[in-house]
Design brief:
Largest sheet: 2 strands, antiparallel
Radius of gyration: 33 Å
Strand order of the largest sheet: 1-2
Structural class: mainly alpha
Distance between the termini: 105 Å
Shape: elongated
Order of helices and strands: HHHEEH
Number of strands: 2
Number of helices: 4
Length: 141
């Protein structure tokens, strides 16, 4: 019997503490968001002049994050910006890759001679595909 009374007392004490704690937290949140604005002020005035005015800053941060995510390397979990186009031969989709993950870039900076080499290899590959498709003498066959 004493145990039952003790557990009920503990339960009531915990419930009272939670109610008081929630009341304090709810009051602090209401004050922060401007719902507890005191007398004489317009409805929700404190929210828009206080914490609500920070919404513009949050949208700027979100815009920077979206801009970064749209321009970073498309390799999974890579933090670098994707500067080089890469067309996947399997599905034909062009993606932006960084210098680290692009298969043709061997250096941090892509110089003019590297671009010439890559374009030359691609040109040879396209000519080879063209001749396989139409034959050695197109138009004569």
């Amino acid at each position: 019997m004493k145990r039952a009374i003790g557990s009920v007392a503990v339960s009531l004490g915990i419930a009272a503490a939670l109610i008081i704690f929630w009341g304090i937290i709810a009051t602090k949140l209401a004050t922060f968001f401007g719902f507890n604005n005191g007398g004489g002020n317009g409805s929700h005035y404190l929210f828009w002049s206080g914490s609500g005015s920070d919404l513009g800053y949050y949208s700027l941060v979100a815009g920077v994050v979206v801009l970064y995510r749209s321009h970073n390397c498309k390799y999974r979990w890579c933090p670098f910006l994707g500067h080089y186009d890469f067309t996947d031969p399997a599905d034909g989709v062009t993606r932006k890759l960084c210098w680290l993950h692009h298969p043709d870039v061997k250096h941090k900076t892509l110089k003019a001679e590297h671009v010439e080499e890559i374009q030359g290899r691609r040109r040879e590959h396209l000519q080879e595909k063209f001749h396989l498709y139409v034959g050695d003498k197109p138009g004569k066959g």
